[in-house]
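FORM 12-B: Structure-to-Sequence Request
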């Protein structure tokens, strides 16, 4: 009877996992299928491909500067992650290890910034970017993305910073180490899983951001990939080239999947760090 219950429990768990996988992966699977079709076959409901064609992938790069859009998104996301982690680590050290008045209030203010919807701060961001002469530039887009990534990075890294043992820090200070040395040589190796996790999430946020990129950029040569995909148009304004759109979507999604697969162990370690104390 006990074995039967265990078998039934495992079967139920397996079915739940299978349903979650199907629901999660089916949209991407169907996008891949659609990107390999042409003509009227795009509008047929089929769950496999009879004839594979890469014409949509060739077309999306030939008809517009999509490769340049990918490089723009890569530059923006990389810059945003670098600045977010640099500022986030230093701010997390001050908020997590240094005791000063108003620390909790400051941390709550940082977190509250991320609670505002993008539309609510769009006008202010637009005026700020225009005032510094960064409108229609990659630099202006990167600055706007920091509003989305920096509060989250500071909050998460502060939580990890608080869990680090105080004895290690105190021993370093006794040996004459300065705060910057403690942060770079002692805490950074311990924070590596957290840095990978927050950095990857910040990269995905900056890579997929649409509203700020659409508002702050006019020229096609400076567009990021979400805006480039949204503005793909065919020969007729009434008919969208779904094959090109699906090919472009698959092209920009694959790098994110590869990043997650490469750093999956660090991501799991970062998400579970501090969950068990002993």
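FORM 12-B RESPONSE
SEQUENCE OUT:
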């Amino acid at each position: 009877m006990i074995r039967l219950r265990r078998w039934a429990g495992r079967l139920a768990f397996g079915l739940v996992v299978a349903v979650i996988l199907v629901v999660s992966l089916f949209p991407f699977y169907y996008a891949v299928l659609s990107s390999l079709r042409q003509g009227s076959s795009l509008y047929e409901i089929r769950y496999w491909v009879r004839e594979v064609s890469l014409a949509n992938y060739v077309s999306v790069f030939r008809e517009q500067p999509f490769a340049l859009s990918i490089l723009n998104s890569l530059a923006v996301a990389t810059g945003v992650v670098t600045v977010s982690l640099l500022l986030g680590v230093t701010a997390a050290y001050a908020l997590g290890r240094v005791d000063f008045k108003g620390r909790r209030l400051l941390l709550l203010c940082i977190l509250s910034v991320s609670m505002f919807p993008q539309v609510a701060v769009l006008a202010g961001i637009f005026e700020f970017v225009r005032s510094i002469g960064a409108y229609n530039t990659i630099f202006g887009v990167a600055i706007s993305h920091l509003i989305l990534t920096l509060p989250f990075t500071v909050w998460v890294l502060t939580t990890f910073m608080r869990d680090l043992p105080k004895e290690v820090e105190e021993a370093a200070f006794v040996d004459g180490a300065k705060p910057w040395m403690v942060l770079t040589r002692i805490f950074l190796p311990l924070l590596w899983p957290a840095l990978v996790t927050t950095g990857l999430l910040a990269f995905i946020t900056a890579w997929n951001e649409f509203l700020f990129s659409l508002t702050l950029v006019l020229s096609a040569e400076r567009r990021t990939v979400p805006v480039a995909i949204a503005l793909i148009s065919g020969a007729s304004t009434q008919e969208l080239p779904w094959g090109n759109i699906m090919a472009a979507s698959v092209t920009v999604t694959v790098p994110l999947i590869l990043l997650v697969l490469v750093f999956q162990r660090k991501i799991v370690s970062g998400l579970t760090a501090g969950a068990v104390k002993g």
